[in-house]
Amino acid sequence: MTNEELWQAVLAQIQLNISQANFATWFRGTEISNIKEGTVFVSVPNSFSKEWMENKYNKPIFKTIHELNKEIKEIKYNVEKKLSPSQDIIAKAPSIAADADQMDFQEFKINKDTNLNPRYTFDSFVTGSFNELPHAAAIAVSKNPGSVYNPLFIYGGVGLGKTHLLQSIGNEVIKNFKKKTVRYVSSEKFTSEVVASIKNHEVEAFKEKYRKIDVLIIDDIQFLAGREKTQEEFFNIFNVLYENNKQIIISSDRPPKAINSLAERLRSRFEGGMIADISYPDFETRVAILKTKSQEKGVEFSDEIYQHIASVVQKNIRELEGALNKLIANQTLNNQKPDLETTKIIIKDLLSSPSRVMTPKKIIEAVAEFYDLKEKEILNVSRKKEIVHPRQIAMYLLREELKSSFPFIGRKFSGKDHTTAIHSYKKIVQELIKDKKLEEEIELIKERVLTI
Ligand code: ADP
Ligand code: MG
After folding, report:
1. What whole-number distance in Å separates Cα of residue 324 and Cα of residue 29?
2. Measured between alpha carbons, how far is 310 from 305 in angstroms, rounded to an integer?
C-alpha cells in the first residue's frame, strides 16, 4: 500500500464519521509525507488543522492506520504550506469539491507570473448548449486578444466553469503569443493589492504593473460590489488598457446590471463589450462531462453509474467531479469498482446537500464551531479575550459576505450598538492587511459556512 493509498483509506474512514463541514475544514490538503521507523508524518496545510488533528482526530486516524499497518506506533503532524491563500479557486470549493481541487494542486503548479493554473485548458473543457456562446467567445478572444469582444464578460452560477473558461483563455494566449503579458487575478486578490498599495504608498507602482498587461483576467467581479476605492482603481486601469486595445476578461456570478453598488460607469463599460452566460448542463452533457473527467483520471465506471450521478448532481460541475472523486477513493480503498448500490450510498449525501449560501445564522454557527465555542457565547456580551476575537470575526463576515448593515449587526449581538460593529469590522480589516494567518483563518471559516 502506498502512502497515498494509506491516507485515502484514513480519509474514507474519517469521512464516514464526521460532518462534511468538518471534513472539508480540517482534512483538505492533508497527506502522508513520510513514514519512518514506525512514525507516520502527516503534512497539514495550516496550524489550525494541525491543532485539531492532534487534539480531536488523532485517535481515529491512528486506529485506522494501525489496523492497516501494525508497525505504526505514532503519528506526527507538520504544517507544510503548499497553497497560497491567493489561489482562491480552492477557497471557492466547499465540501466534496475539496477532493477534486486537492488533486489538481498536487499535479499542477500555478504559474507565478500569470497566476494561471495550467490544468485549465480548452481541451479539457466540455461544451454543450449551456455554454456554447461563452465558449465560442472565449476561443475568439484567445485567438485575437484585444480586437474582438472587449471586454468579455462571462457570468453564471457557482461551479459551472467560469474560472476554467477564463483561465483557458489565458493559457491559450501564453501558448500562442509568447510576448504577451497575461495576468489572472481574483477580485479579492485585486482588492487586497489595492489596499496594500495604498498603505505602502506604492499606488503608482501598482498601476504601472497593471498598465503593462496585455490580457487582464479578473474573476468573480461581484466581490468588488461596495468597494469604492477598489472600483475606482479598477476603472482607471480598465480605461488605460481598453484605450490601448488590451484585452479585458471578467467573470461574475450574475450579469452586470444585477451587481449592486457597482459604479454606473463600470457597469456601462462592461455592457459595452460582449456579455455571455453559462447556464446549466443538460443530462447528456453531465454524463459526457463525467466520462471526460474519468478518462482524464484514468478510470472507468459503468454507464448506469454515470447516469445515476448525472441524475443526482444537476447544477454544479464541480460537484459532479467531486462525486466522481469519491467513487475513485472508494475504488482505491476496496480495490474494486463500486456497483450501483454502493454508488448510491457514496453520493447519497449529495442529494441532501444543503444550499451553498451564507446566512447570518450559518456564519455565527460556523464561527462558533470553528473556535469551539457555543453560539450563545459569541452572541453575548463578554470581554473574554478568547471570545472577543471570534465575535469580531463573525461581525466582519456578516458585513463582508452579506453586506449586512452595521445597526443590524449590532442588534444581532445582544443589542450592541452599531459603533461596536463598525469597530469590529475595521479592526479585522486592519489586521488582515498584515496578518496572513488571519486571512487563512477566515478562508477556512468561510468554507465552513458554505458547508453547513
Ligand atoms: P466557477 O468558476 O464557475 O465556480 P469552475 O471553473 O471553478 O467554476 O469549475 C468547477 C469545476 O468544474 C472545475 O474543476 C472545472 O474544471 C470543472 N468544469 C466546469 N465546467 C467544465 C466544463 N465545461 N468541462 C469540463 N470541466 C468543467
Ligand atoms: Mg470561479
Report:
1. 18
2. 9
Confidence of residue 401 (pLDDT cuts 50, 70, 90): confident
Residue 97 CB–ligand 1 contact under 6 Å: no
* pLDDT at 179 exceeding the cut of 60: yes
Do 137 and 273 belong to one domain? yes
The closest-lying atom of ligand 1 relative to the alpha carbon of residue 281 is: 23
pLDDT score for 356: 60
> What is the Cα–Cα distance from 183 to 258, expressed in whole angstroms?
26
Q: Give pLDDT, residue 234.
A: 92
- Ligand that lies nearest to the alpha carbon of residue 221, given by its number in the listed order: 2
- How many structural domains are present in the chain? 4
Mean pLDDT score across all residues of the chain? 86
The finding on whether 186 has its CB within 6 A of some atom of ligand 1 is: no
Within-domain flag for 97? no
Predicted confidence at residue 355, as pLDDT, reads 54
Residue 277 pLDDT > 90: yes
**Maximum pairwise Cα distance, the chain:** 67
Q: Is 162 annotated as a binding residue?
A: yes
Q: At what angle do helices 317-334 and 283-297 cross, to 10 degrees?
A: 50
For residue 166, how far is its CA from the centre of ligand 2 (angstroms)?
9
pLDDT band at 82, cuts 50/70/90?
Answer: low
DSSP, res 53: I
Ligand nearest to the CA of 98: 1
Domain-located, residue 325: yes
CB of 224 within 6 A of ligand 1: the answer is no
CATH code (residue 146): 3.40.50.300
Query: 299 C-alpha vs ligand 2 centroid, how far in Å?
Result: 26
For residue 249 and ligand 1, the question of a CB distance below 6 A is answered with no
Nearest residue (CA) to ligand 1, atom 18: 161
| Region 261-267 average pLDDT | 84
Q: Which domain holds residue 159?
A: 108-278
Q: Bigger pLDDT: 289 or 97?
A: 289
Q: How far apart are CA 181 and CA 213, in angstroms?
A: 5
C-alpha grid cell, residue 255: 450579469
Joined grid coordinates for residue 306: 454515470
Distance of CA 88 from the midpoint of ligand 2 (Å)? 9
Residue 290, pLDDT score = 96
Is the pLDDT at 83 greater than 70? The verdict is no
- Taking each helix axis from N to C end, the angle separating 20-27 and 97-107, rounded to the nearest 10 degrees, works out to 20
Residue 116 has pLDDT above 80, yes or no: yes
Ligand 1 centroid–CA 61 distance in Å is: 32
- CA-proximal residue: ligand 1, atom 5 (nearest): 161
Give the residue, by CA position, lying nearest to ligand 1 atom 6. Answer: 161
Q: What CATH number has the domain bearing residue 34? A: 3.30.300.180
Q: What is the CATH number of the domain that holds 336?
A: 1.10.8.60
pTM of the model: 0.62
